[in-house]
Amino acid sequence: MIKMAVTSRGLTTPFNGLKLDLSSHHRRRIELIELNKKRRKLSQSSWIKCCSSSDRVVVIRHCKSSKKQDEWPVFCKNVGDSSRRFPSHLTPALPFASSRSRLSSKQEKFFPRCTPRNSGPQSRDTPPKRDTGIANEKDWGISLNEHVNEVGTNEDGSTWYRESGEDIGDNGYRCRWARMGGQSHDGSSEWKETWWEKSDWTGYKELGVEKSGRNAEGDFWWETWREVLHQDEWSNLARIERSAQKQAKSGTENAGWYENWWEKYDAKGWTEKGAHKYGKLNEQSWWEKWGEHYDGRGSVLKWTDKWAETELGTKWGDKWEEKFFAGIGSRQGETWHVSPSADRWSRTWGEEHFGNGKVHKYGKSTTGESWDIVVDEETYYEADPHYGWADVVGDSSQLLSISPRERPPGVFPNLDFGSPPPPPNDDSPELPSSPR
Q1: Whole-model pTM?
Q2: CA separation (Å) from 418 to 106, 234, 241, 352?
C-alpha cells in the first residue's frame, strides 16, 4: 500500500515527488480541516479577542500561563501597505534618536490605533518622514464615531487622555473633533493628535489632522494635513484642495527641516501643485521650491528652484522653467555656484520649441561657453497631470461622505463672494531668506 502525503499544493508521493492537483473543492476541505485543528489547539491554552477596523484585524492572545499579551496580525481582504511611496531626494535625511522609533511594538507596526478595551491610545512619538508629499485620507484612519472623554495611567507610569466633541456655529457650521495624547512618567516626552471634520450649508467640507510631539532626546516635530471640498466663488465649479505641512528639529544637533505641500483640483481639469522645503544639517542649509500649473485646456507651466549654502560662504543652485501649449513652448534654466571668496560661476540655457520639429537651443556661461543652434528634435511635455480630478475624487470618499447639519425650511446659506482668499503661507516662521 502506497501512502500519499497531503500538502497544501496537492498530493505528493514519497517516492518520485509526483504532484497531482486537487480540485478546488477538495483543497478547500483540506484547508478547513487544518484550520480547525489549529483552532482546537489554540483554544486549549488561550482565548482570543479580535479588534478590527477597515481591512485589518489584530488578534490579542492571552495565555493562561502568563500575564503577558502577545499581539500578531491577522490579514483580511485587501490588506497591504497603504502608504504612498515617493522617490527620495538628494538632500540627506535627518535621523532623530528615538528608541521607540527604532523598535516599535508589533501592535503599532500593523495597526497602531487598534487597542485592547479600556486601554489608552497608543503613543505615536515618531517624527514625520521627509519627502513623502500629501498622504491620502485612508492613510490617516480618521474615526470620529465615538464620543469619549477619558484619562488614564499605563503600567509604566505614562499618562494619556482621549476626548471628542462637536462645535456648532452660524450658517450651518459644524465641526466634529477628537483629541488624544499622552506623556511619559517624567514628562520628558509627549505627543498630541487631533482629528476633525467640518461642514456648513454652502457645501464646504473639510477633513484634517494635526499632530505634534517631542521625546527625551529633545527632538520636536509637528505635522498637519487638510483636505477641503468647496465651490469656487468665481467659476462655480467644485474644487478639492489638499495640503500638508511638516516640521522636525533635532534636540542633539543643529539640524531640522520644514516642508509645505499643496494640491488644488477643479472639475474641469484645472490643477495646481507645489511644494516649499527647507533643511539644515549643522553647517549646511538647503532650499527647494517647485510648482506645476495645468489650465485644463492644454496649457502647462512647470518650474523648480533649488539652492544651498554652507556657513563658510559657499553657495550653489539650479533652477529651470518650462511653458507649453499645443506643442509650442519654451524651456530655460540656470546652474550657478559662488565660492567663499565671492567668485561666481553660472551657466544659462534655453530652448524654443516651434511645434514643427525644429528646436532653437542657446546658452552661455561665465567661463566663455556659448551656443546658438537650431536642431531637428521632437517636442515632449506633459499636458495633463499624472494625478488629476478623477484620481483625487476617488481618493476622497471620506471627505465627500461628510454629512452637513440639516437645514431648516426657508433658511438659505450665506454665500460670501468677497475677495479671493490669500495664498497659503509657504514659509516656516523660522525659515531664513534666500542666500542670493
Answers
A1: 0.68
A2: 52, 10, 19, 40
Q: Which of 201, 148, 140 is nearest to 177 (CA)?
A: 148
* Cβ–Cβ under 8 Å, residues 327 and 300: no
Distances, alpha carbon 2 to alpha carbons 16, 27, 295, in Å: 12, 21, 74
420 exposure class (CB count in 10 Å sphere: 0-12, 13-18, 19+): exposed
Please state, in angstroms and rounded to a whole number, the distance separating the CA atoms of residues 216 and 211. 17
Report the C-alpha gap between 367 and 418 in whole angstroms.
53
Give the span between the Cα atoms of 308 and 285, in whole angstroms: 6
CA 361 vs CA 274, 321, 325, 346, 364: distances in Å: 28, 15, 18, 17, 11
C-beta of residue 166 within 8 angstroms of C-beta of residue 197? no
C-alpha cell at 53: 477596523
User: Residue 200 burial by CB count (10 A; 0-12/13-18/19+): exposed, middle or buried?
Assistant: buried
- For residue 426, give the C-alpha cell: 509657504
Strand partners of residue 134 = none
Task: Please tell me the predicted confidence (pLDDT) of residue 61.
Answer: 34
* CA 341/CA 307 separation, integer angstroms: 18
CB-CB contact of 185 with 417 (8 Å): no
The three grid cell numbers given for residue 302, joined into one nine-digit string: 512647470
Tell me the CA distances in angstroms from 20 to 23, 25, 28, 32, 33, one per residue in order.
Answer: 10, 14, 15, 20, 19
Find the largest Cα–Cα distance for the chain: 92
> What integer pLDDT is reported at residue 57 of this predicted model?
33
CB neighbours (10 Å) of residue 275?
20
Residue segments in the chain with a per-residue pLDDT below the cut of 70: 1-120, 122-125, 415-436
Strand partners, 256: 249, 280
